[in-house]
Amino acid sequence: MRTGPTGRVAWGALLVVLYLFLLAPIIVVFVVSFDDATFLRFPPEGFTLDAYRQVFANDDFRSAIQVSAVTASITALLAVVTGVPAALALSRVPFRGREAMESAFLSPLLVPNIVLGLALLVLFAPIPLTDTYTGLVLAHLGITIPYVVRTVCASLAGADPRAEEAARTLGADTFTVARRIILPTIMPGVVAGGVIAFLLSFDETVISLFVSGQNVTPLPVAVLQYVEYRSDPAVAALSVCLVVLSVVAVVFVERSLGLRRSLRSG
Length: 266
Hints:
This is ABC transporter permease. InterPro entries: MetI-like (IPR000515), MetI-like_sf (IPR035906). With 266 residues, the protein is mainly alpha-helical. It has twelve helices and no strands. It has helices at 5-32, 50-57, 59-92, 98-106, 113-124, 133-157, 161-169, 174-203, 206-211, 219-227, 233-256, 259-263.
C-alpha cells in the first residue's frame, strides 16, 4: 500500500521515537560516565575522564577482566569445537532421534539462567568445581553451544548439498570435501557463533554468580560486588566499555562475514 509524504514522515518519526526509547538507558549511562562527581547523577554537571582511568586502575576490575577474557575465550573455542560437529550431524546425517537430539542441544535456551545456576551449584559443589576456571567454563558451555549449533545449522540450511555430492563423485575424499566445500560454507556461521559465545560468556552474570568465588571472579560478578558499596561514574564507564566491545565485535562479524546472512535461515 502506498503512503503519502505525511505517512512517511509519521512513520519515520515513530521509528525515531522507538529507537530513542530503546537507546535512552545507554545514552544516559554514556553521558554519566563523563561526570566529575563521586556518585551517579543525571544530568551531569562536569566533564572528566577520571572514571575511565579509575576502571583500568582498579585492581579488582583488572583481575576480573582477565578472568572473564580467559573464560570467554576458552568457552568460545570449546563451544565451536563441540557445536560444529553437532550441527553437521543434525543437518547432514539422518538418524533416529535427531529431533530429540536437536531439542537437547537447544534446551538450555528455554531454561531460566537462575535455574541453571542453582542446578550447577548443586552439581559442582561436591566435586568441587565451584570457584574454578573449569567449573566456570563448563557452566558457560551449556548456554553458548546452542548458539553455535544454531548459526552453523543456519549456514548449512542455505548451502547446496549437491556441491558436496559432486565433489565426492569427482573423487574427493571426506577430508577434502570438508576442507574445500563444507568449511568455507559454514565459516560465517562458525565465526558468528564463536563471537556470540564469547560475548555471552564474557557478560554472563546469573550463572557466574552461582559458580564463581573469591579466587575466580568474572567481571559481571565483580561489578555487582562493587555496586553493593559504591555507585559512581566508574560503573557507568565500565558499562560503556562493555557496550563498545559488543558493538565492535558484532560490526566486525557483519562487515567481514555477514552476520545477518548467517542467521537468516534456520
